[in-house]
Amino acid sequence: MDIVTSIVVAAVVIVIAFFYFKNQSNSPNITIQSSITDGKKQVNSNIALPNSVNQKEGMAFSYACWMKVDDFSYRYGKQKVVFTKGPEDLSSMCPALFVDANTNSLIVKLDTFGGVETIPIGNIPAKKWLHVVLAIDQESIDIYINGKLYEHHTLSNIPKQNSDTVRTSVDGGFDGSIASLEYFNYLLKPADVSALAAKPPVPDMTVKDGVGTLPPYFDISWWTRHK
């Protein structure tokens, strides 16, 4: 291969690599954590999340995950991190999902320029898979449980985003499991949420015995809306 040919080949490789990584970073959705992972195991994502797409309504982004709480009494008295977009000290959260300190509830927190918004999700059963979606724009957050809208919460101010990474199970996390944690740089619509909730959590096949047979996560008769 002569020098000219080598230069041309190298240039082509560089161009292909450039567009490949450019497209990767600009992907509208990012899988942060795929297979089922122990809720007590902290994972810090090393993936740079693309900025939100400024849709007609303004900024918009969403998170989705499967989760299961086995024991609500674990680390009783402390809020347990499921995942957070922000530093480990939780000084910034946009957003964050917690298991409540003293009840069988989940807590959603979101930094805004007017302070931290807190939204409870009550009456969560133990040992049942739950699909959670947080769809956020600059005026509101829609919380979906198992593909259904749980609450439309109007924000007091614009979300205050941060440039930190996404972390799961900070400081001991929670007693349970998390899977299929994804970020979307746009607002998920009801049809998108239903499609995501129809996909079961993926077992971790690297773990001995996997996770066994998954429970009937599609049956939501055990969960009633808490207002």
Automatic annotation (TrEMBL):
In the UniProt record, does the keyword Transmembrane helix occur?
A: yes
Q: Which UniProt keywords apply?
A: Membrane, Transmembrane, Transmembrane helix
State the name under which the record lists this protein. LamG-like jellyroll fold domain-containing protein
Organism equals viral metagenome
Q: Which SUPFAM superfamilies match?
A: Concanavalin A-like lectins/glucanases (SSF49899)
Transmembrane parts of this sequence: 6-21
Please give the Gene3D superfamilies that the UniProt record associates with this protein.
Answer: 2.60.120.200
